[in-house]
Amino acid sequence: MTDSPRPVRRRTGRTPLATRVLLSCAAIGVAAGVVLAPFTVWGTLMSTTVPLAYMALTGVWLLGPIVALDLLRLPGTALMTCVVVGLIQMPFGGAGSIVTMVMIGAAVELPFLLTRYRVWAWWLFSLTTAVFLALYAWAVFGYFSMSATAPVVQFAFWALAILSGQAAAALGLVVSARLRRAGVGSGSPTG
Questions:
Q1: Is the predicted pLDDT of residue 49 greater than 90, yes or no?
Q2: Following DSSP, what letter does each residue of 11-33 receive, concatenated?
Q3: Are 180 and 190 in contact (CB under 8 A)?
Q4: Taking the model in full, what pTM does it have?
């Protein structure tokens, strides 16, 4: 009998709980939280007085989870990123910021979960933001008393919500593509 050493098997696959993935989610979350800080303050002040301006910027809250999902392409990355964003937002939006961001992260993850994280096409990001912000617009329609406004204002309210989501999806995909090209999230530049 010989005592030959066992070969060491290295894990090559990335998992959602790998250190690199967690740190990437944290970095994306911090960056998104810092970008969102003025929007959170502005949104709180303007949401009751200028709902159309508020709706035009609602897509900004989707940037962090979109970048995380497209860059890392792993389950749970949008949710983990949104937890960090919520923590960063607490001084500006209160403790509800974490709950809000977790709901956003879960909503952005859901379509990818339904595809079992196998479809990463731009159209799924676009569809996700359109559906999410249409549902959000429906949820706040009464809060903003939009039924008391002219039909053209109501149309603008819905259109701005959906267009804001499309702009967020496009910008998020561009940012993640540039980060990927720089080697972020993969471990090496692809340049």
A1: no
A2: P-S--TTSHHHHHHHHHHHHHHH
A3: yes
A4: 0.86
Give the span between the Cα atoms of 170 and 37, in whole angstroms. 21
pLDDT digits over 80-137, tens only? 999 999 999 999 888 888 999 999 999 999 999 999 999 999 999 999 999 999 999 9
What is the three-state SS of 124-169?
HHHHHHHHHHHHHHHHHCCCCCHHHCCHHHHHHHHHHHHHHHHHHH
Structure-block tokens of residue 77: 């990355």
Buried b (16+ CB within 10 A) or exposed e, 66-87: bbbbbbbbbbbbbbbbbbbbbb
Domain ranges within the chain, ordered by starting residue: 19-181
Tell me the per-residue pLDDT of 163-178, one tens digit each, with 9 for 90 and over: 999 999 999 999 999 9
Q: What is the dihedral sign for C-alpha 149, 151, 152, 158?
A: positive
- The whole-number pLDDT of residue 5 equals 58
3-state secondary structure at position 59: helix
The span from the CA of 94 to the CA of 117, in Å, is 32
User: Which tens digit of pLDDT belongs to each residue from 63-79?
Assistant: 999 999 999 999 999 99
Question: Side chain identity at 185, as an amino acid letter?
Answer: G
Task: Determine contact, residues 67/129, Cβ cutoff 8 Å.
Answer: no
| Residue 15, token pair as written in the block | 């998992």
